[in-house]
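To: structure desk
From: M.T.
Subject: fold request, one chain
Message: Could you run this one when you get a chance? Sequence is below, nothing fancy, just the single chain.
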Amino acid sequence: MYWYVTWWHDDGTVEQLQDPSRGRVREADGRNAEPSAGLIDSQSVRTADTVPAGTRGFDAGKKAKGRKRVVVTDTLGLLLAVHVVAANIQDRDGAKPLLLWTRLDHQGVQRI
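Reply: Done. Structure tokens follow.
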């Protein structure tokens, strides 16, 4: 499964499916297809011991050893950007690439 997801991500298949679908869902809800605001959040997730040590860390606040996923969604909760980092990475540091990606991919977003 990982191989397929990576392949589809790299060749643009995921983006070709996700972006038009998001626009249709937003329009069905009476909104513009392109969002103007987004929400950012992170969540630490425990990982198995088989996950390489270089890609996981310890989140002292949550007392969790694993990874942290940082996401930007629109106000309907539809994904705009995702970044996965080691759990010991501060939220502000994990958010920096996401803010850039959101700005580049969704230029209509004015507020996060």
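Reply (cont.): Residues 1-33 form one domain. Let me know if you need anything else for the meeting.
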